[in-house]
Amino acid sequence: MHRRTVFAAIVFGLSFPHALYAAPPEDIRELKLRDWNPQSKLVTKTTKVEKPAFFVIDDHNHLGTGKAALTPERVRRYLEEMDAADVRTVVNLDGMWGDRLKETLAALDEAHPGRFLTFAQINFSGIDDDGWSRREADRLEESFKRGAKGLKFHKSLGLDYRFKNGKYMLPDDPKMDAIYETCAKYRRPIMIHTADPSAFFTALDKNNERWHELNQHPDWLFFGQDFPSQKVLLDAFIHAVAKHPQTTFIGAHLDNNAEDLATVSKWLDAYPNLMCSIDARISELGRQPYAARKFLLKHQDRVMFGTDTRPNREAFRIYYRFLETDDEYFDCAASHHLQGFWMIYGVFLPKDALEKIYHKNAERVLYFGDDRNSLVGEKKKAEAPAPSGALIRVPRTGDFEVTGDGSAAAWQKTVWTPLEKRPNGNHDYDARFKMLYSSTGVYVLMTGGDRKLTATLDEDFADLWNEDVFEFFFWPDESETVYFEYEISPLNRELAILVPNFDRNFWGWRPWHYEGERKTRKAVSVSGGAAKPGTEITGWTAEVFVPYALLKPLRNVPPKPGARWRANFYRCDYDGNRATSWSWTPVGPSFHEYEKYGTLLFE
User: Fold this and answer.
1) Please, how many CA atoms are within 13 Å of residue 423, restricted to the half-sphere of its CB?
2) Taking a C-beta distance cutoff of 8 angstroms, is the pair 420, 583 a contact?
3) In terms of domains, do 207 and 321 share one?
Protein backbone atom coordinates (compact mmCIF):
# COMPACT_ATOMS: atom_id res chain seq x y z
CA MET A 1 0.00 0.00 0.00
CA HIS A 2 1.23 3.45 -0.78
CA ARG A 3 2.66 5.21 2.27
CA ARG A 4 0.24 8.15 1.88
CA THR A 5 -2.69 5.75 1.65
CA VAL A 6 -1.64 4.01 4.85
CA PHE A 7 -1.27 7.37 6.57
CA ALA A 8 -4.73 8.48 5.42
CA ALA A 9 -6.26 5.26 6.63
CA ILE A 10 -4.66 5.70 10.04
CA VAL A 11 -5.83 9.29 10.30
CA PHE A 12 -9.32 8.40 9.10
CA GLY A 13 -9.46 5.56 11.58
CA LEU A 14 -8.43 7.82 14.42
CA SER A 15 -11.02 10.39 13.46
CA PHE A 16 -13.82 7.88 12.84
CA PRO A 17 -13.01 4.76 14.87
CA HIS A 18 -16.17 2.95 13.70
CA ALA A 19 -14.75 2.91 10.23
CA LEU A 20 -12.15 0.41 11.33
CA TYR A 21 -13.68 -1.05 14.50
CA ALA A 22 -17.43 -1.95 14.63
CA ALA A 23 -19.17 -1.13 17.92
CA PRO A 24 -19.98 -4.17 19.98
CA PRO A 25 -23.62 -5.22 19.56
CA GLU A 26 -26.01 -3.98 22.26
CA ASP A 27 -26.47 -6.58 24.96
CA ILE A 28 -30.24 -7.21 25.06
CA ARG A 29 -29.80 -8.54 28.57
CA GLU A 30 -29.13 -4.97 29.65
CA LEU A 31 -32.37 -3.57 28.13
CA LYS A 32 -33.83 -0.86 30.32
CA LEU A 33 -37.31 -1.64 31.60
CA ARG A 34 -38.54 1.79 30.49
CA ASP A 35 -37.56 0.90 26.91
CA TRP A 36 -39.31 -2.48 26.81
CA ASN A 37 -42.27 -2.24 24.45
CA PRO A 38 -43.43 -5.76 23.55
CA GLN A 39 -45.59 -6.22 20.46
CA SER A 40 -48.17 -9.00 20.69
CA LYS A 41 -48.09 -11.68 18.01
CA LEU A 42 -51.57 -12.96 18.82
CA VAL A 43 -53.95 -13.03 15.90
CA THR A 44 -57.28 -11.98 17.41
CA LYS A 45 -60.59 -10.53 16.27
CA THR A 46 -60.98 -6.76 16.17
CA THR A 47 -64.48 -5.31 16.40
CA LYS A 48 -65.06 -1.65 15.67
CA VAL A 49 -68.08 -0.40 17.60
CA GLU A 50 -68.84 2.99 16.09
CA LYS A 51 -72.06 3.55 18.04
CA PRO A 52 -73.18 1.90 21.30
CA ALA A 53 -76.18 -0.40 21.51
CA PHE A 54 -78.04 2.39 23.35
CA PHE A 55 -77.37 6.08 23.81
CA VAL A 56 -74.92 6.92 26.57
CA ILE A 57 -74.75 9.19 29.61
CA ASP A 58 -71.15 9.76 30.70
CA ASP A 59 -71.31 10.37 34.44
CA HIS A 60 -67.66 11.35 34.98
CA ASN A 61 -65.92 14.00 32.94
CA HIS A 62 -63.83 17.12 33.43
CA LEU A 63 -64.75 19.72 30.84
CA GLY A 64 -63.34 22.76 32.61
CA THR A 65 -64.90 25.60 34.54
CA GLY A 66 -65.75 29.22 33.85
CA LYS A 67 -66.37 31.17 30.66
CA ALA A 68 -62.66 31.59 29.89
CA ALA A 69 -62.20 27.82 29.58
CA LEU A 70 -65.61 26.89 28.18
CA THR A 71 -65.59 28.96 25.04
CA PRO A 72 -68.32 28.34 22.44
CA GLU A 73 -65.72 26.76 20.15
CA ARG A 74 -64.54 24.31 22.80
CA VAL A 75 -68.10 23.35 23.75
CA ARG A 76 -68.90 22.87 20.06
CA ARG A 77 -65.98 20.43 19.76
CA TYR A 78 -67.25 18.53 22.80
CA LEU A 79 -70.67 18.20 21.21
CA GLU A 80 -69.21 17.00 17.91
CA GLU A 81 -67.33 14.21 19.66
CA MET A 82 -70.38 13.29 21.74
CA ASP A 83 -72.65 13.18 18.70
CA ALA A 84 -70.19 11.01 16.76
CA ALA A 85 -70.26 8.42 19.56
CA ASP A 86 -73.98 8.75 20.46
CA VAL A 87 -73.28 10.26 23.87
CA ARG A 88 -76.40 12.18 24.81
CA THR A 89 -75.27 13.71 28.11
CA VAL A 90 -71.95 14.35 29.83
CA VAL A 91 -71.58 15.17 33.52
CA ASN A 92 -69.05 17.93 34.09
CA LEU A 93 -67.53 17.63 37.56
CA ASP A 94 -65.68 20.96 37.41
CA GLY A 95 -68.49 23.34 38.39
CA MET A 96 -66.80 24.78 41.50
CA TRP A 97 -69.03 27.37 43.25
CA GLY A 98 -70.08 31.02 43.14
CA ASP A 99 -69.43 32.97 39.93
CA ARG A 100 -67.37 30.14 38.41
CA LEU A 101 -70.33 27.81 38.81
CA LYS A 102 -72.68 30.42 37.35
CA GLU A 103 -70.46 30.83 34.28
CA THR A 104 -70.08 27.08 33.85
CA LEU A 105 -73.81 26.46 34.03
CA ALA A 106 -74.41 29.22 31.49
CA ALA A 107 -71.85 27.78 29.04
CA LEU A 108 -73.02 24.17 29.35
CA ASP A 109 -76.31 23.29 31.06
CA GLU A 110 -78.21 26.42 30.08
CA ALA A 111 -76.76 26.81 26.59
CA HIS A 112 -77.29 23.13 25.73
CA PRO A 113 -80.14 21.72 27.88
CA GLY A 114 -79.94 17.99 28.42
CA ARG A 115 -76.44 17.65 26.96
CA PHE A 116 -74.49 18.63 30.07
CA LEU A 117 -75.04 18.28 33.82
CA THR A 118 -72.66 20.26 36.01
CA PHE A 119 -71.67 19.23 39.54
CA ALA A 120 -70.57 21.69 42.21
CA GLN A 121 -67.63 21.46 44.58
CA ILE A 122 -66.98 22.91 48.03
CA ASN A 123 -64.18 25.05 49.42
CA PHE A 124 -61.94 23.24 51.92
CA SER A 125 -60.10 26.33 53.10
CA GLY A 126 -60.64 27.00 56.79
CA ILE A 127 -61.64 23.45 57.76
CA ASP A 128 -60.44 24.07 61.31
CA ASP A 129 -63.00 26.83 61.80
CA ASP A 130 -66.03 25.95 63.92
CA GLY A 131 -68.38 27.37 61.30
CA TRP A 132 -66.80 25.66 58.28
CA SER A 133 -69.42 22.89 57.98
CA ARG A 134 -72.35 25.27 58.08
CA ARG A 135 -70.62 27.70 55.74
CA GLU A 136 -70.04 25.05 53.10
CA ALA A 137 -73.47 23.46 53.53
CA ASP A 138 -75.01 26.87 52.88
CA ARG A 139 -72.69 27.41 49.92
CA LEU A 140 -73.69 24.03 48.50
CA GLU A 141 -77.37 24.80 48.98
CA GLU A 142 -76.88 27.97 46.98
CA SER A 143 -75.09 25.98 44.28
CA PHE A 144 -78.02 23.60 44.00
CA LYS A 145 -80.43 26.50 43.77
CA ARG A 146 -78.35 27.94 40.95
CA GLY A 147 -78.64 24.68 39.05
CA ALA A 148 -75.81 22.35 40.09
CA LYS A 149 -76.88 18.73 39.60
CA GLY A 150 -74.64 17.09 42.18
CA LEU A 151 -71.44 17.35 44.22
CA LYS A 152 -67.93 16.14 43.37
CA PHE A 153 -65.11 15.20 45.75
CA HIS A 154 -61.60 14.61 44.47
CA LYS A 155 -59.16 12.25 46.15
CA SER A 156 -57.67 15.35 47.78
CA LEU A 157 -60.30 14.65 50.45
CA GLY A 158 -58.16 12.16 52.34
CA LEU A 159 -54.84 12.70 50.57
CA ASP A 160 -54.35 16.46 50.65
CA TYR A 161 -56.52 18.52 53.00
CA ARG A 162 -55.18 18.61 56.57
CA PHE A 163 -56.20 20.16 59.83
CA LYS A 164 -53.75 22.43 61.60
CA ASN A 165 -52.66 19.50 63.77
CA GLY A 166 -51.47 17.68 60.65
CA LYS A 167 -54.28 15.13 60.58
CA TYR A 168 -55.78 14.43 57.17
CA MET A 169 -59.46 15.17 56.70
CA LEU A 170 -61.15 11.90 55.70
CA PRO A 171 -64.50 11.35 53.94
CA ASP A 172 -66.25 10.27 57.15
CA ASP A 173 -65.09 13.22 59.25
CA PRO A 174 -68.03 14.57 61.30
CA LYS A 175 -67.47 17.97 59.70
CA MET A 176 -68.66 16.44 56.42
CA ASP A 177 -72.06 15.39 57.80
CA ALA A 178 -73.83 18.67 57.05
CA ILE A 179 -72.56 18.51 53.46
CA TYR A 180 -73.90 15.00 52.93
CA GLU A 181 -77.22 15.90 54.55
CA THR A 182 -77.61 18.86 52.20
CA CYS A 183 -77.19 16.52 49.23
CA ALA A 184 -79.87 14.24 50.68
CA LYS A 185 -82.19 17.19 51.25
CA TYR A 186 -81.91 18.29 47.63
CA ARG A 187 -81.65 14.77 46.19
CA ARG A 188 -78.36 15.49 44.54
CA PRO A 189 -75.85 12.63 44.20
CA ILE A 190 -72.22 12.77 45.28
CA MET A 191 -69.47 11.60 42.94
CA ILE A 192 -66.57 10.74 45.22
CA HIS A 193 -63.04 9.65 44.34
CA THR A 194 -61.27 8.10 47.31
CA ALA A 195 -57.81 6.52 47.29
CA ASP A 196 -56.28 5.08 44.10
CA PRO A 197 -55.16 1.67 42.78
CA SER A 198 -53.25 -0.51 45.21
CA ALA A 199 -49.98 -0.08 43.34
CA PHE A 200 -50.05 3.63 44.16
CA PHE A 201 -49.84 2.73 47.86
CA THR A 202 -47.00 0.19 47.58
CA ALA A 203 -43.26 0.58 47.17
CA LEU A 204 -42.03 1.52 43.70
CA ASP A 205 -39.77 -1.47 43.27
CA LYS A 206 -39.40 -4.50 41.01
CA ASN A 207 -42.70 -5.90 42.27
CA ASN A 208 -44.87 -2.88 41.49
CA GLU A 209 -47.11 -3.81 38.57
CA ARG A 210 -47.57 -0.16 37.54
CA TRP A 211 -43.87 0.70 37.47
CA HIS A 212 -44.06 2.43 34.07
CA GLU A 213 -46.97 4.67 34.99
CA LEU A 214 -45.64 5.68 38.39
CA ASN A 215 -42.22 6.50 36.99
CA GLN A 216 -43.91 8.86 34.56
CA HIS A 217 -46.03 10.34 37.35
CA PRO A 218 -44.09 10.09 40.63
CA ASP A 219 -46.56 12.46 42.32
CA TRP A 220 -49.16 9.68 42.07
CA LEU A 221 -47.24 7.49 44.51
CA PHE A 222 -48.63 7.61 48.06
CA PHE A 223 -46.10 5.30 49.70
CA GLY A 224 -43.27 6.00 52.07
CA GLN A 225 -44.66 9.22 53.48
CA ASP A 226 -47.34 9.93 56.06
CA PHE A 227 -50.29 9.43 53.69
CA PRO A 228 -53.22 7.36 54.97
CA SER A 229 -53.18 3.80 53.66
CA GLN A 230 -55.56 2.67 50.94
CA LYS A 231 -57.48 0.65 53.54
CA VAL A 232 -57.91 3.64 55.84
CA LEU A 233 -59.27 5.71 52.95
CA LEU A 234 -61.67 3.02 51.72
CA ASP A 235 -62.91 2.33 55.24
CA ALA A 236 -63.62 6.04 55.69
CA PHE A 237 -65.43 6.16 52.34
CA ILE A 238 -67.73 3.23 53.09
CA HIS A 239 -68.31 4.49 56.64
CA ALA A 240 -69.59 7.77 55.19
CA VAL A 241 -71.93 5.82 52.91
CA ALA A 242 -73.23 3.82 55.86
CA LYS A 243 -73.69 6.92 58.05
CA HIS A 244 -75.83 8.69 55.45
CA PRO A 245 -78.33 6.20 53.99
CA GLN A 246 -80.49 8.98 52.56
CA THR A 247 -77.61 10.35 50.47
CA THR A 248 -76.80 8.81 47.09
CA PHE A 249 -73.07 8.16 46.61
CA ILE A 250 -71.52 7.32 43.24
CA GLY A 251 -68.17 5.72 43.93
CA ALA A 252 -65.82 6.80 41.14
CA HIS A 253 -63.55 4.21 39.55
CA LEU A 254 -65.59 1.14 40.61
CA ASP A 255 -66.10 2.47 44.12
CA ASN A 256 -62.37 3.24 44.17
CA ASN A 257 -61.55 -0.46 44.47
CA ALA A 258 -61.63 -2.08 41.00
CA GLU A 259 -58.97 -4.63 41.94
CA ASP A 260 -61.23 -6.19 44.59
CA LEU A 261 -64.62 -6.82 42.98
CA ALA A 262 -65.70 -9.18 45.75
CA THR A 263 -65.46 -6.39 48.32
CA VAL A 264 -67.21 -3.89 46.07
CA SER A 265 -69.99 -6.43 45.54
CA LYS A 266 -70.44 -6.75 49.31
CA TRP A 267 -70.67 -2.97 49.61
CA LEU A 268 -73.34 -2.77 46.94
CA ASP A 269 -75.30 -5.55 48.62
CA ALA A 270 -75.13 -3.79 51.97
CA TYR A 271 -75.76 -0.16 50.98
CA PRO A 272 -78.60 0.60 48.55
CA ASN A 273 -77.57 4.28 48.47
CA LEU A 274 -74.26 3.36 46.82
CA MET A 275 -73.67 3.26 43.06
CA CYS A 276 -70.43 2.72 41.16
CA SER A 277 -69.02 3.99 37.88
CA ILE A 278 -66.66 2.20 35.49
CA ASP A 279 -64.87 5.47 34.73
CA ALA A 280 -61.19 4.97 33.88
CA ARG A 281 -61.21 1.40 35.17
CA ILE A 282 -61.84 -0.83 32.16
CA SER A 283 -58.11 -1.52 32.34
CA GLU A 284 -58.76 -3.27 35.66
CA LEU A 285 -62.07 -4.87 34.70
CA GLY A 286 -60.77 -6.06 31.34
CA ARG A 287 -57.89 -8.05 32.77
CA GLN A 288 -60.30 -10.07 34.91
CA PRO A 289 -63.08 -10.58 32.31
CA TYR A 290 -64.78 -13.57 33.96
CA ALA A 291 -65.11 -11.90 37.36
CA ALA A 292 -65.93 -8.55 35.75
CA ARG A 293 -68.73 -9.99 33.65
CA LYS A 294 -70.28 -11.72 36.68
CA PHE A 295 -70.00 -8.52 38.68
CA LEU A 296 -71.54 -6.34 35.97
CA LEU A 297 -74.42 -8.76 35.47
CA LYS A 298 -75.13 -9.10 39.17
CA HIS A 299 -75.01 -5.36 39.80
CA GLN A 300 -76.31 -4.14 36.46
CA ASP A 301 -78.78 -1.89 38.32
CA ARG A 302 -76.00 -0.20 40.28
CA VAL A 303 -73.27 0.37 37.67
CA MET A 304 -72.99 3.63 35.72
CA PHE A 305 -71.03 4.54 32.61
CA GLY A 306 -68.21 7.07 32.90
CA THR A 307 -64.89 7.75 31.19
CA ASP A 308 -62.97 10.46 33.12
CA THR A 309 -61.71 11.48 29.64
CA ARG A 310 -62.74 14.61 27.78
CA PRO A 311 -65.14 13.81 24.93
CA ASN A 312 -63.28 11.83 22.28
CA ARG A 313 -65.12 9.48 19.96
CA GLU A 314 -62.33 6.92 19.83
CA ALA A 315 -62.01 6.82 23.60
CA PHE A 316 -65.75 6.22 23.92
CA ARG A 317 -65.52 3.43 21.33
CA ILE A 318 -62.95 1.52 23.35
CA TYR A 319 -65.45 1.44 26.21
CA TYR A 320 -68.13 0.17 23.81
CA ARG A 321 -65.78 -2.52 22.54
CA PHE A 322 -65.05 -3.64 26.10
CA LEU A 323 -68.71 -3.75 27.12
CA GLU A 324 -70.28 -5.16 23.95
CA THR A 325 -67.79 -7.56 22.31
CA ASP A 326 -65.85 -10.70 23.12
CA ASP A 327 -62.66 -9.32 21.58
CA GLU A 328 -59.51 -10.57 23.25
CA TYR A 329 -56.24 -9.04 24.37
CA PHE A 330 -56.57 -5.48 23.11
CA ASP A 331 -55.01 -2.20 24.20
CA CYS A 332 -57.30 0.23 26.05
CA ALA A 333 -54.78 2.98 26.83
CA ALA A 334 -56.53 5.43 24.49
CA SER A 335 -59.69 5.20 26.61
CA HIS A 336 -57.94 7.20 29.34
CA HIS A 337 -54.17 6.70 29.44
CA LEU A 338 -51.68 3.91 30.10
CA GLN A 339 -52.74 2.09 33.26
CA GLY A 340 -50.68 -0.99 33.96
CA PHE A 341 -48.73 -3.02 31.45
CA TRP A 342 -51.39 -5.40 30.19
CA MET A 343 -54.11 -5.85 27.60
CA ILE A 344 -57.84 -6.34 28.26
CA TYR A 345 -60.70 -8.60 27.15
CA GLY A 346 -64.30 -7.73 26.29
CA VAL A 347 -67.19 -8.85 28.50
CA PHE A 348 -69.99 -8.99 25.83
CA LEU A 349 -72.86 -7.95 28.08
CA PRO A 350 -76.48 -8.67 27.08
CA LYS A 351 -78.70 -5.85 25.84
CA ASP A 352 -80.73 -5.40 29.03
CA ALA A 353 -77.57 -4.90 31.12
CA LEU A 354 -76.04 -2.59 28.52
CA GLU A 355 -79.07 -0.34 28.48
CA LYS A 356 -78.96 0.05 32.26
CA ILE A 357 -75.24 0.76 32.38
CA TYR A 358 -75.25 3.07 29.37
CA HIS A 359 -78.05 5.33 30.55
CA LYS A 360 -80.97 3.92 32.56
CA ASN A 361 -79.13 3.84 35.88
CA ALA A 362 -77.88 7.37 35.35
CA GLU A 363 -81.39 8.56 34.56
CA ARG A 364 -82.51 7.22 37.93
CA VAL A 365 -79.70 8.72 39.95
CA LEU A 366 -78.75 11.99 38.28
CA TYR A 367 -80.82 15.14 38.62
CA PHE A 368 -82.21 16.16 35.24
CA GLY A 369 -84.14 19.20 36.42
CA ASP A 370 -87.54 17.70 37.32
CA ASP A 371 -88.70 20.23 39.89
CA ARG A 372 -91.43 17.90 41.08
CA ASN A 373 -88.68 15.89 42.75
CA SER A 374 -86.71 18.84 44.08
CA LEU A 375 -86.98 21.17 47.02
CA VAL A 376 -86.40 24.09 44.67
CA GLY A 377 -87.94 25.35 41.47
CA GLU A 378 -90.62 27.83 40.64
CA LYS A 379 -93.03 25.12 39.53
CA LYS A 380 -93.09 23.47 42.94
CA LYS A 381 -96.47 23.92 44.64
CA ALA A 382 -96.13 25.84 47.85
CA GLU A 383 -98.48 23.51 49.71
CA ALA A 384 -96.76 20.31 48.61
CA PRO A 385 -94.78 18.58 51.36
CA ALA A 386 -91.02 18.56 50.98
CA PRO A 387 -89.83 15.07 49.97
CA SER A 388 -87.41 13.13 52.09
CA GLY A 389 -84.01 12.46 50.61
CA ALA A 390 -84.38 8.68 51.05
CA LEU A 391 -85.03 6.84 47.80
CA ILE A 392 -85.00 3.20 46.80
CA ARG A 393 -85.46 1.72 43.37
CA VAL A 394 -88.09 -0.98 43.06
CA PRO A 395 -87.25 -3.61 40.40
CA ARG A 396 -89.95 -5.18 38.26
CA THR A 397 -90.61 -8.92 38.51
CA GLY A 398 -92.96 -11.63 37.39
CA ASP A 399 -95.44 -12.89 39.97
CA PHE A 400 -94.27 -15.61 42.36
CA GLU A 401 -95.42 -17.55 45.41
CA VAL A 402 -95.30 -15.88 48.82
CA THR A 403 -93.65 -18.27 51.28
CA GLY A 404 -92.83 -16.07 54.25
CA ASP A 405 -89.07 -16.67 54.13
CA GLY A 406 -88.00 -14.71 51.06
CA SER A 407 -86.79 -17.84 49.29
CA ALA A 408 -88.20 -16.89 45.88
CA ALA A 409 -85.45 -16.31 43.31
CA ALA A 410 -87.05 -12.97 42.38
CA TRP A 411 -85.81 -11.44 45.65
CA GLN A 412 -82.26 -11.65 44.33
CA LYS A 413 -83.10 -8.74 42.00
CA THR A 414 -82.91 -6.28 44.85
CA VAL A 415 -80.97 -5.62 48.05
CA TRP A 416 -81.88 -5.12 51.67
CA THR A 417 -82.61 -1.62 52.95
CA PRO A 418 -82.01 -1.16 56.68
CA LEU A 419 -84.46 0.34 59.16
CA GLU A 420 -82.94 2.66 61.75
CA LYS A 421 -83.78 2.42 65.43
CA ARG A 422 -85.80 5.41 66.56
CA PRO A 423 -84.80 7.55 69.58
CA ASN A 424 -85.27 6.07 73.05
CA GLY A 425 -85.35 2.51 71.73
CA ASN A 426 -84.44 -0.28 74.14
CA HIS A 427 -83.64 -3.27 71.92
CA ASP A 428 -80.63 -3.55 69.61
CA TYR A 429 -82.31 -5.84 67.09
CA ASP A 430 -81.78 -5.35 63.39
CA ALA A 431 -84.58 -4.66 60.91
CA ARG A 432 -84.63 -4.37 57.12
CA PHE A 433 -86.84 -4.70 54.06
CA LYS A 434 -86.97 -5.36 50.32
CA MET A 435 -89.56 -4.51 47.71
CA LEU A 436 -90.53 -5.61 44.19
CA TYR A 437 -93.44 -4.91 41.87
CA SER A 438 -95.20 -6.86 39.11
CA SER A 439 -98.01 -6.22 36.67
CA THR A 440 -100.56 -7.21 39.34
CA GLY A 441 -99.23 -5.84 42.65
CA VAL A 442 -96.34 -5.04 44.97
CA TYR A 443 -94.27 -7.44 47.09
CA VAL A 444 -92.72 -6.51 50.45
CA LEU A 445 -90.25 -8.60 52.45
CA MET A 446 -89.37 -7.53 56.01
CA THR A 447 -87.15 -9.27 58.54
CA GLY A 448 -85.41 -8.66 61.86
CA GLY A 449 -83.75 -10.27 64.85
CA ASP A 450 -85.73 -10.85 68.04
CA ARG A 451 -85.57 -12.73 71.36
CA LYS A 452 -89.21 -13.27 72.21
CA LEU A 453 -92.42 -13.47 70.23
CA THR A 454 -94.42 -10.75 71.94
CA ALA A 455 -97.78 -11.13 70.20
CA THR A 456 -101.13 -12.54 71.30
CA LEU A 457 -103.74 -11.09 68.94
CA ASP A 458 -105.08 -13.94 66.84
CA GLU A 459 -107.38 -12.26 64.38
CA ASP A 460 -107.03 -9.93 61.39
CA PHE A 461 -107.96 -6.24 61.68
CA ALA A 462 -107.08 -6.13 65.40
CA ASP A 463 -104.94 -3.35 66.91
CA LEU A 464 -101.74 -5.09 65.92
CA TRP A 465 -99.50 -2.06 66.55
CA ASN A 466 -99.69 -2.72 70.30
CA GLU A 467 -97.59 -5.88 69.85
CA ASP A 468 -94.67 -7.01 67.69
CA VAL A 469 -95.36 -5.89 64.15
CA PHE A 470 -93.93 -4.88 60.78
CA GLU A 471 -95.66 -1.98 59.01
CA PHE A 472 -95.50 -0.18 55.68
CA PHE A 473 -97.27 2.94 54.42
CA PHE A 474 -97.86 3.64 50.71
CA TRP A 475 -98.75 7.14 49.52
CA PRO A 476 -98.93 6.83 45.72
CA ASP A 477 -100.21 10.31 44.86
CA GLU A 478 -98.91 13.38 46.69
CA SER A 479 -101.76 15.55 45.43
CA GLU A 480 -104.13 13.75 47.82
CA THR A 481 -103.12 13.01 51.39
CA VAL A 482 -104.84 9.66 51.61
CA TYR A 483 -102.57 6.67 51.93
CA PHE A 484 -102.57 2.91 52.53
CA GLU A 485 -101.21 1.36 55.73
CA TYR A 486 -100.48 -2.32 56.25
CA GLU A 487 -99.41 -4.17 59.41
CA ILE A 488 -98.48 -7.81 59.90
CA SER A 489 -97.62 -9.67 63.12
CA PRO A 490 -95.38 -12.71 63.74
CA LEU A 491 -98.63 -14.72 64.17
CA ASN A 492 -99.42 -13.91 60.51
CA ARG A 493 -102.30 -11.57 61.37
CA GLU A 494 -102.78 -8.46 59.27
CA LEU A 495 -104.36 -5.04 59.36
CA ALA A 496 -105.05 -3.16 56.11
CA ILE A 497 -106.40 0.38 56.40
CA LEU A 498 -106.85 3.63 54.47
CA VAL A 499 -105.78 6.81 56.23
CA PRO A 500 -107.14 10.28 55.36
CA ASN A 501 -104.75 12.93 56.64
CA PHE A 502 -106.11 16.25 55.41
CA ASP A 503 -104.32 19.51 56.20
CA ARG A 504 -101.82 17.43 58.18
CA ASN A 505 -104.52 16.44 60.63
CA PHE A 506 -104.80 12.74 61.36
CA TRP A 507 -108.53 11.92 61.23
CA GLY A 508 -108.32 8.28 62.21
CA TRP A 509 -108.44 5.36 59.80
CA ARG A 510 -110.80 3.04 57.99
CA PRO A 511 -110.36 -0.76 57.90
CA TRP A 512 -109.90 -1.66 54.25
CA HIS A 513 -111.63 -5.00 53.83
CA TYR A 514 -111.16 -7.14 50.77
CA GLU A 515 -112.33 -10.19 48.92
CA GLY A 516 -111.55 -11.98 45.68
CA GLU A 517 -108.86 -10.31 43.61
CA ARG A 518 -108.52 -7.57 46.23
CA LYS A 519 -107.24 -9.99 48.88
CA THR A 520 -103.62 -9.85 49.98
CA ARG A 521 -101.30 -12.83 50.04
CA LYS A 522 -99.13 -13.10 53.15
CA ALA A 523 -96.89 -15.51 55.05
CA VAL A 524 -94.61 -15.37 58.08
CA SER A 525 -91.63 -17.47 59.18
CA VAL A 526 -90.16 -17.53 62.69
CA SER A 527 -86.59 -18.63 63.36
CA GLY A 528 -85.20 -20.15 66.56
CA GLY A 529 -88.58 -21.12 68.02
CA ALA A 530 -92.26 -21.77 67.41
CA ALA A 531 -94.73 -19.17 66.14
CA LYS A 532 -96.54 -19.03 69.50
CA PRO A 533 -97.06 -16.19 72.01
CA GLY A 534 -94.18 -15.82 74.47
CA THR A 535 -91.83 -18.22 72.66
CA GLU A 536 -88.10 -17.49 72.69
CA ILE A 537 -86.97 -16.91 69.11
CA THR A 538 -84.04 -15.45 67.18
CA GLY A 539 -86.00 -13.49 64.60
CA TRP A 540 -88.95 -13.41 62.24
CA THR A 541 -89.73 -12.56 58.62
CA ALA A 542 -92.92 -11.42 56.89
CA GLU A 543 -93.64 -11.56 53.16
CA VAL A 544 -96.66 -9.75 51.70
CA PHE A 545 -98.25 -9.28 48.29
CA VAL A 546 -100.62 -6.31 47.95
CA PRO A 547 -102.68 -6.41 44.73
CA TYR A 548 -103.28 -3.18 42.86
CA ALA A 549 -106.98 -4.03 43.04
CA LEU A 550 -106.85 -3.32 46.78
CA LEU A 551 -105.25 0.07 46.14
CA LYS A 552 -107.63 1.14 43.37
CA PRO A 553 -109.15 4.10 45.26
CA LEU A 554 -105.69 5.71 45.25
CA ARG A 555 -104.28 7.44 42.19
CA ASN A 556 -101.02 6.59 40.41
CA VAL A 557 -101.90 2.89 40.73
CA PRO A 558 -100.65 0.68 39.19
CA PRO A 559 -97.23 2.33 38.94
CA LYS A 560 -95.64 2.60 35.53
CA PRO A 561 -91.86 2.41 35.07
CA GLY A 562 -90.46 5.70 36.35
CA ALA A 563 -93.41 6.34 38.67
CA ARG A 564 -92.73 7.49 42.23
CA TRP A 565 -94.64 6.73 45.40
CA ARG A 566 -93.93 8.18 48.82
CA ALA A 567 -93.61 5.50 51.50
CA ASN A 568 -92.26 4.51 54.87
CA PHE A 569 -91.50 1.21 56.58
CA TYR A 570 -91.56 0.50 60.31
CA ARG A 571 -91.04 -2.15 62.94
CA CYS A 572 -92.26 -2.28 66.56
CA ASP A 573 -91.08 -4.70 69.26
CA TYR A 574 -92.27 -5.01 72.87
CA ASP A 575 -89.94 -7.52 74.55
CA GLY A 576 -89.83 -7.18 78.33
CA ASN A 577 -92.62 -4.61 78.26
CA ARG A 578 -90.18 -2.15 76.75
CA ALA A 579 -91.09 -0.62 73.41
CA THR A 580 -88.63 -0.10 70.55
CA SER A 581 -89.46 1.02 67.04
CA TRP A 582 -87.55 1.35 63.79
CA SER A 583 -88.22 3.35 60.62
CA TRP A 584 -86.80 3.71 57.13
CA THR A 585 -87.00 7.51 57.01
CA PRO A 586 -87.00 9.45 60.30
CA VAL A 587 -90.31 10.83 61.56
CA GLY A 588 -91.35 12.46 64.81
CA PRO A 589 -93.62 10.94 67.46
CA SER A 590 -96.21 9.86 64.87
CA PHE A 591 -95.74 7.30 62.11
CA HIS A 592 -98.18 9.44 60.11
CA GLU A 593 -95.85 12.38 59.41
CA TYR A 594 -96.22 11.70 55.71
CA GLU A 595 -94.26 14.76 54.59
CA LYS A 596 -91.11 13.01 55.88
CA TYR A 597 -91.67 9.77 53.99
CA GLY A 598 -89.10 8.51 51.50
CA THR A 599 -89.61 7.76 47.82
CA LEU A 600 -90.08 4.52 45.88
CA LEU A 601 -88.89 4.74 42.28
CA PHE A 602 -90.37 1.98 40.11
CA GLU A 603 -87.92 0.76 37.47
Assistant:
1) 5
2) yes
3) yes
pLDDT at 15: 43
Domain that holds residue 117: 56-367
Based on the domain organization, do 593 and 543 belong to the same domain?
yes
Q: DSSP readout, 528-589?
A: SS-SSTT-B-SEEEEEEEEEGGGGTTSSS-SPPTT-EEEEEEEEEE-GGG--EEEESS---S
Residues of the chain with pLDDT under 50: 1-21, 370-388
Looking at the structure, tell me whether residues 303 and 388 fall in a common domain.
no
If one counts the domains in the chain, the total is 2
Q: Do 149 and 191 fall into the same domain?
A: yes
Q: CATH number, domain at 419? A: 2.60.40.1190
Among 220, 70, 240, smallest CA distance to 159 is for 220
pLDDT, tens digit (0-9, with 9 covering 90-100), for 238-249? 999 999 988 999
Question: 3-state DSSP call for residue 256?
Answer: helix
Residue pair 28/313 in contact (Cβ under 8 Å)? The answer is no
Distance CA 237, CA 250 (A): 11
Question: 394 and 601 in contact (C-beta within 8 Å)?
Answer: yes
What's the rounded Cα separation, in Å, for the pair 192 and 119?
11
Residue 511's pLDDT is 61
Q: Please report the pLDDT score of residue 384 as a whole number.
A: 34
CATH number assigned to the domain comprising residue 191: 3.20.20.140
Q: What is the pLDDT of residue 307?
A: 97
Please check whether residues 399 and 327 belong to one and the same domain: no
CA distance linking residue 103 with residue 110, whole number of Å: 10
* 323 class by beta-carbon count within 10 Å (0-12 exposed, 13-18 middle, 19+ buried): buried
pLDDT at res. 335? 93
pLDDT score of 125: 97
Residue 175's pLDDT is what?
97
The secondary structure of 179-192 as a DSSP string is: HHHHHHHHT--EEE
Query: Do 336 and 308 meet the contact criterion of CB atoms below 8 Å apart?
Result: yes
Express each pLDDT in 16-29 by its tens digit. 444 444 556 678 88
Residues 340 and 407 in one domain: no
The reply to whether 318 and 414 lie within a common domain is no
pLDDT of residue 425: 76
pLDDT at position 187 is: 85
